[in-house]
Design goal:
This protein is mainly alpha-helical. Helices cover 47% and strands 3% of the residues. Among the domains are: 7-143, no CATH class; 318-399 and 482-535, no CATH class; 404-474; 733-818. The chain contains 35 helices and ten strands.
Length: 819
């Protein structure tokens, strides 16, 4: 039986050692003593010959690993060494043969004996003595990250301040100037501006996720001023529903959920506080740099005695705690590092659009991010107290956010509770004494049965009063939050395993994005605050670029960088790099205001264009040298976009008059930390609400079926770019579901409630559903359809006929797509 017998196990296990670790591993050992050479020859070489050389010897080198020479041992497999001289615990060879790692056990079928493992451990501890030690000076590492070359990647360069191109006959918007230059370079001609009805519907859905009302449409149509659309945008930005719409976008990035998911799908009973923090932050146009800093390190900010601000910032750090966790993991160290990994991956892809998590097990295969860069960050988040306990079943950390009034109510209740208990105890003591029990007799457990009926009755009343006090005991509010924990740098985990530790890496930031001489992080702080300030310093090449690209994507349906969560080497380059940098620079110079960025984008002609096609722009026309841009890569028109799941549901509730527009508050009915959907399929979730979709509970592993149907995000991971599918079940849902039947019945009842002509009702139905009036032909066809329905034997009354019409209207593509 050979220790390393397959290419797949070997190549994966020993590839991509960290640069610092690889250099240490590759150093030639010191000259061994005669006794050490003898130990190698008598104990180690026979072991390797019997178990290893068949796959990793002179004739065969699976995984490019050769173990019959010292050079081969030091070089290791595809890109790393098996051993670190003098450090058995850091040597992957010992992890494999000792079977400490459940995923890497060698030999897989017949383990080595304890004596053989002990011999290998002793050999590594000696410094891997070998007869060839004097002949091998140094074996270079297979890994080498060229940081300077990496910094030349477009996303890692400093954000430029590009000059705005000449307008080329377009509006004064700088966005239009950048877009116009690209259009001109590709011989593309933009389509004209969309009509007012299209614009207000597009803008209203974009900013608040709801359809415009008839009154809002007509007010815009009547406003003939040049800045009429600006006033529409300003009004929508001031709506309390703006924060719900754009907060929901951010919750995708924050992988928000109301339950844990995975093995123990426990209720995140206080996650709603983070959700409301996000909504309030967007409504208040909190500067994005402050928004990020609070989520990463709100607990470390000085709130200067402002309790409400302190609590808000504590709630903000729920961002770090919201991820799914294997709460029943028996290995606490593994769980801790898995949580750290999830945090790093979320921060990397969400805030920097970098797949930092790929460097947990090895140096990043594509981006200039070392294994050591990952563990430098891991030290920051390992020094963060995310979990209250790692014992089964583990508990995430929560902190008190009780106000002075909350504490006063609790103290008053505690006082009343103690007084009532004392009153009961006193009554029992007096009544017991009056029984005059014989000297030496122990008070029986049922002593109260000997009390007079009047005393028993009084005690019963007192205990009922006690129960009432206990039932009204105020629950002190808590929030999912983090704090600084035990501060310590992290060791490199070879192959990502905490069982094989390499060099300890000081906490710092990725080298490719930082100055060569980074200041040391404080010994008494995790480094989260310094990390947040580094991200938002204005010199960081990614933070502003990533967020303006997200805002652009949420407005246009695609980003200037299509891979919104990956700006790395494997991501797509920007279609308009200078525009991206101009927007990022404007974002920072404008105080990181997201609302200001909305205005900049939405008031451009680029945003306001029609969605109509142009054959010259979308097809190859060699005769006039027209470029092909069927995908509208250069924004010569507006893309037609389908509404997200939440907007579809909210629109149906809105036009039916059923939508509950209350903002914020808890919605999950399951008590905090209890199972909401368990392994036996016991389901405690409930989606029966008419509130906006942002307030529908997000249960991991058991998502609301309407959300699943219309491409909702996977709440276990961040998603900045939702897919859009077109499936038959979507149409069937609109035509057949009980939910749609209920809302369209309500629509019909609203239309019939007010005395109106049939033509007026049809016009109102079209305007509320599509944002436009029906054509003369459509009015005639709909009227004829209603007449036929009313005469049909299966139709009971006028309401049912109109309900059928309403359901036909909302089942159309025009209802769920934006032009």
């Amino acid at each position: 039986m050979k220790i390393f017998c397959t290419l797949t196990t070997l190549a994966i296990a020993f590839s991509y050692a960290p640069s610092a670790f690889a250099e240490e591993a590759a150093k030639a050992p010191e000259l061994p003593s005669t006794e050490q050479i003898q130990f190698f020859e008598t104990s180690i070489r026979p072991l390797l010959a019997n178990h290893c050389y068949g796959c990793h010897g002179e004739e065969t080198q699976e995984g490019e690993l050769r173990l019959d020479s010292l050079a081969g041992i030091l070089t290791g497999g595809t890109a790393g060494s098996l051993v670190v001289a003098g450090k058995p615990k850091s040597s992957l060879l010992l992890t494999a043969v000792s079977h400490r790692d459940s995923e890497l056990r060698m030999p897989p079928d017949e383990p080595l004996s304890d004596r053989q493992v002990a011999d290998l451990t002793r050999w590594v501890d000696m410094g891997i003595p070998h007869p060839e030690s004097g002949e091998v000076d140094f074996v270079p590492s297979r890994e080498n990250i060229d940081i300077e070359a990496g910094r030349k990647h477009w996303a890692f360069r400093p954000i430029a301040s590009p000059d705005v191109p000449g307008s080329l006959g377009f509006s004064s918007s700088p966005i239009d100037a950048f877009i116009a230059r690209a259009l001109d370079q590709h011989n593309l001609v933009p389509v004209e501006r969309a009509d007012k009805r299209t614009l207000i519907r597009r803008a209203t859905f974009d900013l608040i996720g709801l359809p415009p009302t008839s009154d809002e449409i007509n007010a815009f149509l009547a406003d003939k001023a040049n800045d009429a659309f600006r006033r529409v945008v300003d009004r929508l930005l001031e709506s309390p529903h703006y924060g719900e719409r754009w907060g929901r976008h951010w919750l995708d990035v924050a992988r928000y959920a109301d339950s844990n998911g995975l093995d123990e799908n426990a209720a995140h009973g206080n996650a709603w506080r983070y959700r409301d923090y996000v909504v309030q932050s967007f409504n208040g146009d909190k500067p994005y740099d402050q928004f990020l800093t609070e989520q990463l390190a709100g607990d470390l900010l000085d709130s200067q005695g402002d309790t409400a601000l302190k609590h808000q910032r504590l709630i903000a750090t729920g961002y770090l705690s919201l991820g799914p966790k294997v709460l029943a993991e028996v290995d606490g160290q593994k769980m801790e590092m898995d949580i750290v990994d999830e945090q790093i991956d979320t921060i990397g892809r969400g805030l920097m659009s970098l797949t930092l998590g790929c460097a947990r097990c090895h140096t990043h295969k594509f981006d200039p991010l070392g294994h050591d860069d990952y563990y430098a960050l891991a030290g920051i988040f390992k020094s963060t107290h995310t979990m209250e306990s790692f014992k089964l079943v583990a508990r995430w950390n929560e902190v008190s956010i009780a106000t002075v009034d909350d504490l006063a109510r609790k103290q008053e209740n505690d006082t009343s509770l103690a007084a009532k208990k004392q009153q009961i105890a006193d009554q029992v003591a007096i009544a017991t004494k009056q029984l005059a029990l014989p000297a030496g007799e122990t008070i029986p457990t049922d002593v109260e049965t000997r009390f007079p009926e009047s005393v028993q009755s009084k005690l019963q009343k007192l205990r009922e009063e006690l129960e009432q006090i206990e039932e009204t005991t105020p629950i002190m509010p808590t929030a999912m939050a983090v704090s600084d924990g035990t501060i310590a740098d992290a060791a490199i985990h070879v192959r990502g395993s905490h069982l094989t530790l390499g060099e300890i890496i000081p906490r710092r930031f990725p080298r490719v994005l930082s100055d060569d001489d980074q200041p040391n992080l404080p010994d008494d702080q995790s480094g989260r605050l310094q990390f947040a300030r580094w991200l938002t310093s204005g010199d960081h090449p990614l933070t502003a670029r990533v967020m303006v690209n997200r805002i652009w994507r949420w407005h246009f349906g695609k980003g200037l960088v299509a891979t919104v969560d990956n700006f790395g080497i494997q991501g797509e380059p920007p279609t308009h790099p200078e525009l991206l940098d101009w927007l990022a620079r404007q974002f920072m110079d404008g105080g990181w205001s997201i609302k200001a960025m909305h205005r900049t984008i939405m008031l451009s002609e680029t945003y306001q264009r029609r969605s109509s096609a142009d054959a010259n722009n979308a097809s190859d026309n060699a005769s006039n040298n027209t470029s092909i841009d069927g995908d509208n890569q250069f924004y010569w028109r507006s893309d037609i976009r389908r509404l997200e799941a939440e907007a579809i549901r909210d629109s149906l509730l809105s036009i039916s008059g059923q939508l509950d527009r209350m903002v914020g508050g808890p919605v999950l009915q399951t008590p905090n930390r209890t199972l909401v959907f368990n392994h036996t399929s016991q389901d405690a979730s409930s989606y029966d609400t008419t509130r906006r979709s942002i307030y529908v509970p997000i249960i991991r592993n058991h998502l609301y079926d309407v959300f699943q149907l219309f491409d909702y995000t996977d709440a276990s991971v961040l998603t900045g770019n939702r897919d859009t599918s077109t499936l038959s079940p979507q149409a069937l849902f609109l035509m057949n579901s009980e939910f749609v039947t209920e809302v369209t019945t309500s629509m019909a009842e609203r239309l019939l409630k007010k005395p109106s002509s049939r033509q007026t009702r049809i016009a109102r139905l079209f305007e509320e559903s599509y944002g436009r009036l029906p054509t003369k032909s459509e009015t005639g066809h709909v009227a004829q359809f209603l007449t036929q329905l009313e005469q049909h034997a299966a139709v009971r009354d006028q309401t049912q006929a109109w309900q059928t019409l309403c359901q036909s209207i909302v089942s159309s593509s025009e209802f769920i797509y934006l032009r």
